[in-house]
Amino acid sequence: MENKDVRDGLCESLPDATGCEKGDEGPGVLDRRDLISHLLKLGAGGLATYLGAHALLNATSAIAKAGQQHSAHAKQKYRYGMVIDTKRCVGCRACVLACKAENKTPPGVYYTVVFDQILENRPYDKPTYMTKPCFHCEFPPCVDVCPVSATYKREQDGIVVVDYDRCIGCRYCMTACPYSARWFDFGENYPAVEEHTPYAQIPSQEYNQFRKREPDQSPIGNVRKCMLCMHLQDKEGKYDRKSGRWPACAKTCTGKAIHFGDFMDPDSEVSTLLKERQYIRLKEELGTSPNVYYLI
Amino acid sequence: MSVSEWLGNDGTIRKLKVTFWAVGFVLFGVGLAGWYLRLSTGHLDANYGSIVTWGLWVASYIYFIGLSAGSFLVSSLVFVFNIKKYEKIGRLAIFTALVTLIMALFSIWVDLGHMGRSWHVMMYPNFKSPMAWMIYLYSLYMLLLFAETYFLLRHDLVVGSRAATLKGRVYRWLSLGSKDDGEAAALRDRKIVRVLATIGVPLAIMFHGGVGALFGVVAARPHWHSGLFPILFLLSALVSGGALLTVIASVFQDGWTRHRDVVVSLGELVLGLLVLDVIFQISEFLVTYRGGIPGHMAGMDMVVSGPYAWVFWVWQVVLGTIIPIALLALPTRKNTHYVALAGVLIAAGIFGLRLNIVIPGLAVEELHGLTWAIVSPRVNPSYFPSATEWLLTLSLIGFGMLLFGWGEHFLPHFKKETGEEA
Amino acid sequence: MPYIWDEKTGRRRFIKTLGGAAAGSALALTAGCRPTLGSKARELKIDEEGLRQWGREAGEWIPSCCNMCGGQSGILVHVVNGVVEKIEPNHWNPNNYSNISSDFFDGYSESFGCQEGGAICPKGNAGIMQLYDPDRVRKPLKRRNPDKSLDADPHWEEITWDQALDEIAARMKKLRDDGEAHKLVWMSEDHSFTHIQADFCKLYGTPNYSNHSNLCDVARKASFKMVMGDERPLADFIQSKYIVLFGWNPTSAIKWVYLPRILTRAIERGARLVVVDPYLSDTAAKGHDWIAIRPGTDGALALAMGHVILRDGLYDRPFVENWVTGFAEYADYVKDKTPEWAADLTTVKARVIERLAHELATTKPALVDAWSGPGQHTNGVQGGRAIAMLNALIGSWDRPGGMIMPNKKGNKHVEVEIAEGVEKTYKEPRLDELQRFPVGHKSGVYTQLFSNIANGTGPYPARMLVCVFQNPVMSIPGGTKTVIEAFRKLETTVVIDTMMSETAMVADYVLPGTTYLERYDLNTHWVTWPVLGLRQPVVKPIFGQLAEYETVAALGRRLELKDKSGREFFYEGPLSKKRIENLTEWYEDFLSNELVQGAPKMTLAQLKALPGAVWMDRKGTKYEKYEAELSKDDLKTAFFDGPRTKDGTIVYDKPKDKKGKPIGIVFKGKPVKGFATPSRKVELFAPTLAARKDALGRPVNPLPVYEPRDWQPNNQYPLYLINWKEASHTHSRTQNNAWLLELKATNPLVINPETAAKYGIREGDEVWIESPHGKVKATARLTERMHPEVVGAQHGFGHKGLGQRARDRGTNTGILNVAKSDPLSGQAVHKEICVRIYKA
Ligand SMILES: Nc1nc2c(c(=O)[nH]1)N[C@H]1C(S)=C(S)[C@@H](COP(=O)(O)OP(=O)(O)OC[C@H]3O[C@@H](n4cnc5c(=O)[nH]c(N)nc54)[C@H](O)[C@@H]3O)O[C@H]1N2
Ligand SMILES: Nc1nc2c(c(=O)[nH]1)N[C@H]1C(S)=C(S)[C@@H](COP(=O)(O)OP(=O)(O)OC[C@H]3O[C@@H](n4cnc5c(=O)[nH]c(N)nc54)[C@H](O)[C@@H]3O)O[C@H]1N2
Ligand code: SF4
Ligand code: SF4
Ligand code: SF4
Ligand code: SF4
Ligand code: SF4
Ligand SMILES: [Mo]
User: Fold this and answer.
1) Chain centroid to CA C93: how far?
2) 3-state SS class at C65
3) pLDDT of residue B6
4) Contact yes or no for A124/A130 (Cβ under 8 A)
């Protein structure tokens, strides 16, 4: 049918109507076949297959993922997190700077910050202090939105990390984190580094990658976040307070408000605290299930 | 002579085109400074931070890509639904879609922390991320646009390639070796175009809906987290695209001289879409405010009463909506100049809308006191684009204008599209 | 028949190009492409080489002591390849954990130290930025521009250390040869390398050596000393159940970093915390009660509480009967000091005062402490006494959970024997007329000193001044006027500072100082039992500059200073008794000697070897020391001023006529230590004072009388202005520290919204603060945390110097004040200001 009016159209537009006898279906048939065959050749087909290939891959990786969910728990040795005692926190912000000192974060990047206005309208505007690192959520929305799988949750200990070499710096994850725990490294430097004092030569031990601050080199241009001072883990992935291999913020805390540990170990300090004390987690309703609890 | 007469004659149109070129060149040239700064200093003198982490460049990106999807869908009226009265702008619409898409891609590219790694998005896609889907979809869409443009122009390119001029040589190159200028071949071209256009429609809907989804799925940002978002994105895309085309038709398709009807009917189309868009917008506001959850209202509050409320009231509402609706609804709707004016206003208005989607969604503190908790220019809820950001965006606009102008001027005459013979 | 592609070649070419391209790219993609559903975990690459070179195991961890503030907390410094990489808490140092030994040793191990590990405050963490601040003074500087004002460019000339030391020594020599050694004024911070400076001044022959304590807490020192004989009792928070703090902000003005822990831990263990303060301080934020008091009226509140406690007979009878004198006089005095009386003065409701008094007297153990808040006013000493006396009424002195008298045995300052000839100038009266202050402190009286120099008053004119490790221009009330004026009057002024402080900016010579990471010190810690921590250079002075003590010694050598025995003091090692050319080695010997002679009885090297480089007396905290019997050798030469077994007989170390000093009292028939007051008891009435006059010639009241402070608001200047310290900064010294500035970048003027409304001031407005002595701009910060009659700001901002980042940031409220001290102790009255505010 369509074929027909096309031909009519054609006949109209042709100066001489040769090869336009009635009933000559030929070209039409031929055309369609060729048309398709050519379309194929024109690569659209190639792309179609490509899409198909992806659909397939998705399916497979979906299955893989399903399987991996199991193995993940099998593989998981620790569930690291924090229990932060708001009654002990005095809002001194030592944790903020200890983290800076540990990870050499630049101006504008703070793996933890201390809130004092988290509770609104308290009588006399009485502050409530609360330090807020990354919560290493069980279901981290920041991870799911990363277009290039640069940020992910480690299977062995649940730490949410950023692969600086993979990350393209799109900052989608920052919009997706409900807790503002992610920070973009704009490439600014502190005077001690900018002015090339001896301090400038010290790299950041973060992820044991020992990166120096050089223009356009990662982590500049990346999104950065608390990684529970992962570089302080031993080969087995354990932390050890006695040898100083312990999150810097917890180490320095003047109120001794930051308890760090493994929630998978039922006898760990953090697990015990959760048994003994009342706690809250922020924005439970979002289903992120943070691994940082606040004692109240 | 009266203004309308003045506007009405070809001489003026020519003047307008000259101005268009001039503006294009100036913007592009001046804007290059922005490129220089971006490439030499990275993100240092960008004004977004870790609170408002997406700024002008992302807003421009969704704006341009909206224009692209919009014009493409309008073009489908011609190539899929065969609506004759829009035929005149069919080709230009496709080409516009292509140009604006390129602008969009540049805009998002410079926003990346690591421009050099943009290929990662192809190599390591995470298909749980709406962004990954979006990227793949518009890559397809781009190829499709190229193909469709090619088949729209192939015949004329072949014809043109005969000339021994430089133009001829370029045409020969562009025609990718095709030699057949027979009408039969031209006919096949049109069939292919129709098929491509038909594939394109769902694709365009998917990917631009996808852009909406990219924001919509972010549960952390109540201002974005709404089921309406994908649809809103599509609608405003159509509106902006249509609006832009009325202007283009006016200037480049003799819309004020021979083909007034095209512009007028485009005006009707745009009006319809705009009204629909406004209805959706209003429902967003109503639901949010009646719902009365502070977190959800915060974003809206920022839009209607924040430091940049004028963007909403003056730019979006008055200039971008009320005036154009009036122009398109009142008798002025018959006057192509007013329709074109409405087009300009709407297209500009939607840009305000884009800004008001991206920035307030981020500027609202996720936790009360966050922007107090630490003192840093990067921890700042109020955002105004830096010189670099503006300049670079202007250069993209200039670039788009030049590319479009070049195509319009250099490529086989779009007028001949409907084969209405000379 | 027609075909899309006319001739094959064209077609093939076409297909090749487009199809090929498409397929090719598709291929390329699928080849390297790693699509996933969800972001899959991978292992991140690590840099083994970096780990070896810079990791935690690389370099060394050197134990030392912080000095970002005067707290001296213990630190462990990671030094890699000659660079300070990080500073961490030193868990062997009690100063980082607790001031009570039982708490500290609970779970203590040699291998790790205290159970939970130590802590350091933000300033301590930011020490690195202080060390590597690019704005530091690097070379000795000599002034070329005679115009000494903060806006004038001094036209510094960089000179060599030798030239600097020679010229300065020459001027000192000249002074001494003119027989005017006493006209050299030497001032220094009060716990770093002070002994050597004191020795220098003594050997040189000037009595005018002072320390910053009189800017700090000498009012508190005087108050407590008069009441119970100890200058600086320490609050045992952790064992206490009821804690009342008058104008003290320990969880934020963190002097000793154990404070936040022991205070929050006390609350956790059920203690109730009451904070008396016009501002809801960061400490009040942790408290149960915030008592918003009108500035300068703490004495009245304390007296009214005493009134209630006596009226209702709630005081600790046994303690009062055994250990308190002047009870009758006190009781008589507070009879009419009713809550209603105090309510009018303090704006604290009468029933609140009743409740506080009851809770305080009925909860055990309880304590009452105060610091700068009540002290830095002209009526601070008497107010402080009234507060201190509450501890007597509730019997909290030196008991667990109360106010403990610390045992501060540490390194010994071996007094130098002064050579003849030098005595003459050394015996001259002090320029600051310290003797006129009845309960003055050896640290002197800066306000008086600088006023005298500026106004040409005082016993004689000064000619030369050396200022070490202080910034009087910013730290003294009205310093921007008086101190700068004084510097103009002086012939030669030398400032030793790490930064270009405001004081340095108006000096003739500026010598680069060392930060605490570049030098030595011995720190006898402020805990309740003998503990001494070592500060040592973790890196060499980064500009090759001399440490302060080396500068002192170098000058001493140039002046050929000798002691009585004629030995060249700054050459001969006091321990080795050998001549030591190297300045550092000489000082190490000097410190070793102080250690060997002092409680640790060990050399510097041995101290370094101890875990955390901290020496501790394991016997720990002792309580109720006043009931401890006098030791045998105490009693050998002892003289009893009455029957040997009659309670109340005062025991002297030697006969009174032989200048014997009281060392104890007979209690329950036995000679015990008692309190270090003339009566060896807690004195609610101080007869010895009755004879004295204050600096203004007014008789001193032996009772803890409440008298309104001098400067009261009037309708022209209707508001009280106060200031305070916060965890983010130290005084006027850290406002150029890039890290700390991110915690607090400026000091807005805190105003109660009610008050602000009265003056039409909105949040964020620029406002003028004006007093009769000047006006300064500030940014308004509206909060209910402030008493409606009061405005206030954090101290330390509003620099004209220090460094690029500090300059013109925030507000210096000192400008609104005059160089003034309280007439009893000489305490600078930083918090006694009245102002009006209006929109700028
Ligand atoms: N972070 C930090 N810590 C420090 C220091 C520092 O500079 N920075 N300095 C150290 C030194 S040297 C010292 S002396 C201590 C001082 O420590 P603090 O004694 O706490 O000194 P301030 O913070 O000046 O004053 C304490 C409180 O007194 C309140 N106040 C003011 N006027 C009055 C009044 O009339 N009555 C009452 N009841 N309260 C009043 C203020 O609002 C403030 O909250 O801090 C030490 N610790
Ligand atoms: N308005 C107001 N004024 C106050 C107070 C207040 O609460 N309000 N508080 C008062 C109190 S409690 C005190 S203790 C005083 C303190 O007042 P100051 O003793 O003057 O202490 P800072 O203001 O910190 O100034 C210290 C100076 O020494 C320099 N410095 C720092 N470290 C070193 C070093 O290692 N070596 C050398 N050579 N120099 C160094 C710093 O750069 C700075 O210039 O301030 C008092 N002034
Ligand atoms: S807190 Fe934010 S960044 Fe951290 S895991 Fe959760 S979502 Fe991700
Ligand atoms: S910024 Fe980096 S980590 Fe975050 S989403 Fe983009 S690519 Fe992933
Ligand atoms: S755990 Fe480590 S990285 Fe995370 S906030 Fe604390 S110090 Fe920073
Ligand atoms: S260091 Fe501890 S007490 Fe200080 S702010 Fe951080 S969490 Fe709170
Ligand atoms: S309180 Fe902070 S600044 Fe002061 S000595 Fe201790 S750690 Fe250092
Ligand atoms: Mo002090």
Assistant:
1) 18
2) strand
3) 65
4) no
Whether residue C625 has pLDDT greater than 80: yes
Write out pLDDT tens, residues B318-362.
Answer: 999 999 999 999 898 888 889 999 999 999 999 999 999 999 999
User: Would you mind telling me the total number of residues written for chain C in this entry?
Assistant: 840
CA of C518 to the centre of ligand 7 (A): 16
- Name the residue at shortest CA distance from atom 8 of ligand 4: A146
Cis amide leading into C365 (omega within 30): yes
Quick check: B110 pLDDT over 60? Answer: yes
Distance, CA of C164 to chain centre:
30
Phi and psi for C643 in degrees, rounded to 5? -55, 135
With the CA atoms of A284, A287, A290 and A293 taken in that order, what torsion angle do they form, in degrees rounded to the nearest 10?
20
pLDDT tens readout for residues C113-146: 999 999 999 999 999 999 999 999 999 999 999 9
Q: Specify the pairing of strand C614-616 against strand C184-188.
A: unpaired
Which of chain C's residues have a Cβ under 8 Å away from the Cβ of A150?
39
DSSP reduced 3-state for A153: strand
* Sign of the CA dihedral running C222, C228, C231, C236: negative
Please report, in angstroms and rounded to a whole number, the separation of the first and last CA atoms in chain B.
Answer: 30
Identity of the amino acid at B339: V
AA letter at B100: T
Query: What is the structure's pLDDT at A10?
Result: 38
**Cβ partners under 8 Å of residue C753, min gap 6:** C782, C783, C784
d(C-alpha C705, C-alpha C447), whole Å: 25
- Per-residue pLDDT tens digits for C630-644: 999 889 889 999 999
Q: Is the pLDDT of residue C155 over 70?
A: yes
B166: helix, coil or strand?
helix
Pairs of residues, one from chain B and one from chain C, whose beta carbons lie less than 8 Å apart = 67
Q: Evaluate if residue B268 carries a pLDDT over 80.
A: yes
| Cα–Cα dist C82/A2, whole Å | 84
Average pLDDT, chain C: 95
- Helix, strand or coil, per DSSP, at residue C83: strand
pTM for this one?
0.93
Q: Do residue B126 and residue C37 have CB atoms under 8 angstroms apart?
A: yes
d(CA C690, CA C700) in angstroms, rounded, equals 6
Q: Do B179 and C6 touch (CB under 8 A)?
A: yes
Q: Please identify, by atom number, the ligand 2 atom nearest to the C-alpha of residue C468.
A: 38
Q: Which two tokens stand for residue B164?
A: 């021994």
Q: Which among C711, C717, C831 has a CA at the least distance from the CA of C774?
A: C717
Prior bond of B385 cis (ω within 30°): no
Q: Sorting pLDDT into bands at 50, 70 and 90, what band is C205? A: very high
State the DSSP H helix or E strand holding residue C367, giving kind and residue range, or none if neither.
strand C366-370
The enclosing H or E element of B408 equals helix B387-410
- What pLDDT is stored for residue B5 in this prediction? 67
- Which chains have 3+ CB pairs within 8 A of B? A, C
Ligand 7 centroid, distance to C97 Cα (angstroms): 12
The full length of chain B comes to 422
Tokens for C828, please give them. 């600078």
The amino acid sitting at A284 is: E
Secondary structure (H, E, C), C285-315? HHCCEEECCCCCCHHHHHHHHHHHHHHCCCC
Place of tokens 């409220």: C813
Cβ-based neighbour number of residue C333 at 10 Å: 22
Buried b (16+ CB within 10 A) or exposed e, A236-245: eeebebeebb
Q: Which of A144, A155, A131, A156 is nearest to A226 (CA)?
A: A131
A113, A132, A134, A167: residue to mutate for ligand 3 pocket, most atoms within 8 A of CB: A134
Give the ligand whose atoms come closest to the C-alpha of residue A89. 6
Alpha helices in C598-672 (DSSP H): 604-609, 632-636
Collect all residues with Cβ–Cβ distance below 8 Å to B130 and sequence separation of at least 6.
A145, B210, B213, B214, B217
